[in-house]
Amino acid sequence: xxxxxxxxxxxxxxxxxxxxxxxxxxxxxxxxxxxxxxxxxxxxxxxxxxxxxxxxxxxxxxxxxxxxxxxxxxxxxxxxxxxxxxxxxxxxxxxxxxxxxxxxxxxxxxxxxxxxxxxxxxxxxxxxxxxxxxxxxxxxxxxxxxxxxxxxxxxxxxxxxxxxxxxxxxxxxxxxxxxxxxxxxxxxxxxxxxxxxxxxxxxxxxxxxxxxxxxxxxxxxxxxxxxxxxxxxxxxxxxxxxxxxxxxxxxxxxxxxxxxxxxxxxxxxxxxxxxxxxxxxxxxxxxxxxxxxxxxxxxxxxxxxxxxxxxxxxxxxxxxxxxxxxxxxxxxxxxxxxxxxxxxxxx
Length: 347
Fold this sequence. Notes:
This protein is of the alpha/beta class. It has helices at 41-45, 93-96, 127-130, 142-149, 154-165, 180-191, 204-213, 223-233, 249-257, 280-286, 297-310, 328-336, and strands at 2-8, 11-16, 28-36, 55-56, 61-68, 80-83, 86-87, 107-108, 121-124, 132-134, 172-176, 196-200, 217-219, 239-244, 259-267, 289-292, 321-324, 343-346.
């Protein structure tokens, strides 16, 4: 079969790789219908995150079960499923507690020795603990299927940021970052009942989506200018909850500075700028909490799935470009150059 592999900075290729097969009785093989490129994939593309030459890449996908191992009980060939960006056994103490990202038997798609999500098919370890079933009729609804793809990572990650920051009904929320995760954070905050949502972003097409998702205000600034603008919008006190969806030193510093005394920052941006932006003294003096990390998407997908199916939320607008598998290298370029927000891959 064909799949996406990375050979070095700015070197993404589509190559023939071995077909996935059942290796353990708890495995399944999923034939992809949709996948996508994540903003975090760009760190490998840019050479910031190290990858082996020829390593598979990609971690967001949904598809149809092609085969299952003898011990798989929850799925059968023909089922439409979505996979969170981490596989997990579903039975360890961390999985039971809803922190599947810490499963000792789990892993990330595209890690050495595993299949990446940007290929024609994927071997799924611990299928019963990892996959989530989707209604079969969703396969005929392109918009719905696209919205369901967002559950594999960005919608679940935005939701994680909102929960970590303590978004509650009637609260004021600020979102730092106008990428797909930040925009989904806006949608998550709106879903949780935030009364005011301030989106920080400088790209009009993206902030337009933020407003569609429920943002009441847009701050097109960075650094101290952004801090001053948010303070001005909030009577000088800042937001109850701040969602940090970038991962740089500047973004973290901004997030902490615009948090109201006694509030919290929910951080989900993959760190790539050191930790100097975490001002412990300022946080201590103002009772600002910092929570977050890798989102346990598998824990969140069922409740978010219900809201997508009911029409209560629709994260599909974060996908603004579509390519087939041959177009994936160009999709990486488009996202790297910020001419695309998030690229969907069709098979």
